Amino acid sequence: MNLKNFLSDFTDLIFPRCCEACDSSLVGNEATICTSCMISLPRIHLHGLHQDVIRYKFVNVPEVALTHSFLLFTKKGKVQRLLHALKYKGNQDVGLLLGFMFGQEMMTAGMLSEAEMIISVPLHANKKKSRGYNQSDLLAEGFANATGIPWSAMILERTKHTATQTGKSKTERRENVKGVFAVKDHIDYKNVIIIDDVLTTGATLEECVQTLKLVGCESFTILTIALAEH
């Protein structure tokens, strides 16, 4: 055993690293998520029942050419634990890793050939300041690292602070986010990816689409790390 491995093993013994999905100890080269959880995370297939549910959320937005969620979110499940670590425990590595894994799967499926730019869903400046970062930026960065498609956090901005969407109906959610986004700079992209953490009703993402349509974007791929199961 070389010195670097010895020091790593010694550090793990004194300050054990734990998987954010199951809380078991990480070993060797494992980072953030253990190998077992990497394999067993509840993935959503591109062709299946859950995919039909996702598509239906944007049935009235013909400009959405493709929409997909990477994982299935269930209460007290591994995906909830991961997203909680990302949003509330300050573990930014979770976002980078999940975005990268999602990007790898989408590239393998050959679904992103037309995309010109990845746009993350913005937080209001006050909320971003409070949290210290926007989790969607991290997902977009990880996704970009895997796909080679550029990403930007500077295209869309959230101009109004809104109440939480939790507990609201789709109609209430639409009203809550109506007019809250604006485009910060002129853009020339026609085919864009919008990425966010969790898909529930799709109201926030639909409002992003409507805002970007006003500046000439024509075709949208909507991607989220998780689909909330109701």
From TrEMBL:
Pfam families for this protein: Pribosyltran
InterPro entries: ComF/GntX_DNA_util-trans (IPR051910), PRTase-like (IPR029057), PRTase_dom (IPR000836)
Domain of life the protein comes from: Bacteria
All copies of domain Phosphoribosyltransferase, residue ranges: 165-226
The family this protein is said to belong to: Belongs to the ComF/GntX family.
Name the UniProt record assigns to this protein: ComF family protein
Species per Swiss-Prot/TrEMBL record: Dyadobacter chenhuakuii
